[in-house]
Amino acid sequence: MATYTPSQVAAKTGFSLDTLRYYERIGLLGDIARTSGGRRTYDDDDLGWLGMVQCLRDTGMPIADMLRFAELCRNGDDTIPERIALLEQHDATVQEKIAHLNTQQQRISNKIQWYRDVTRADDVPSKVADSAPV
Amino acid sequence: MATYTPSQVAAKTGFSLDTLRYYERIGLLGDIARTSGGRRTYDDDDLGWLGMVQCLRDTGMPIADMLRFAELCRNGDDTIPERIALLEQHDATVQEKIAHLNTQQQRISNKIQWYRDVTRADDVPSKVADSAPV
DNA sequence: TTGCCACCTGGAGTGCGCTCCAGGTCAAGG
DNA sequence: CCTTGACCTGGAGCGCACTCCAGGTGGCAA
User: In what residue span(s) does the HTH merR-type domain sit (chains A, B) (predicted)?
Assistant: First the structure.
């Protein structure tokens, strides 16, 4: 099975070496295999898990929740329903976040358009005056 | 013109009193009018600006950038092109964020589905084994 | 006039998620 | 062998965006 040095993993995942060590220290990664000399050797399972971590992190899951998920994963197949529940909960949160982002982005677009109208008219015409303020 | 007490503004906007004072202190709000006794009295313009701040904050703009935008707004109509540029830049960032969130959410959905398939099969059948790992 | 509560100020503290550092170890190339 | 650079550990430090606090003031209601 393929193994990877810390710097290879950093390159592949975008996590820094410090972050990788940090995640391991707090228990987000489980113990990583070592060489006889004590150097970490990551394998494909580790990379897979790191991908999951990255996905959850990038969607805004706090580390505490990821730790909970990691713990469930470590505790065998009986926890799968709980894992599903956790992910569904998170999925709903992400859904809301996306929706909120979309509405806020619309506001930004409106504002940009408002500025464009203002500059084209060289002043604030009534047609445009009731747009977003300031 | 309608005016509002700090707690009314907090209720309307969702910002805490401390956050309102903090934003004022760092220059994100400009000086808020005061009563003779020194109490803040916010007006509708302030609320409008706070709405903008909220929109930018919720879409992930760092305070430093909002300060820059606030400064442009204070410096008259000549800065409107710069404001547009800043907002367009931000808009693009938000766009990317939404796109990334969507792809990551897809991964989460896949993972949930994968867990469902696993539990239904009571083990990992080959049909499902090449899905997302761990 | 006296409570009382909302509000004021400046400054210190908090939580999160890393990031940096000092001082040491391991292993491959020359 | 010796150098060199990637890696090790434990712990301290950082940047952001607030949040809390102590000690004091304003103004309305009873």
Answer: 3-72
For strand C, give the nucleotides within 7 A of a protein CB: 6-11, 16-21, 25-27
Q: Is A9 left (phi over 0), alpha (psi -120 to 50) or beta?
A: alpha
Instruction: For residues A60 and A113, state if they share a domain.
Output: no
Encoded tokens for A40: 């970490």
ipTM of this model? 0.90
Task: Provide the 10 A C-beta neighbour count for residue A37.
Answer: 5
Question: For residue B32, is pLDDT > 70?
Answer: yes
Chain B neighbors of A119, CB-CB under 8 A: 80-81, 84
For the cut 80, the answer to whether the pLDDT of residue A55 exceeds it is: yes
Alpha carbon distance B94, A51 (integer Å): 23
B38: nearest nucleotide, CA–C1' criterion: C8
Residues B30 and B58 in one domain: yes
* pLDDT tens digits, one per residue of B96-120: 999 999 999 999 999 999 999 998 7
Contacts of B118 in chain A (CB under 8 A): 77, 80
Total number of domains in chain B: 2
Structural domain span for residue B104: 91-134
Q: Is the pLDDT of residue A99 over 80?
A: yes
CB spacing of B84 vs A108 below 8 angstroms: no
Domain boundary among A75, A96, A115: A75
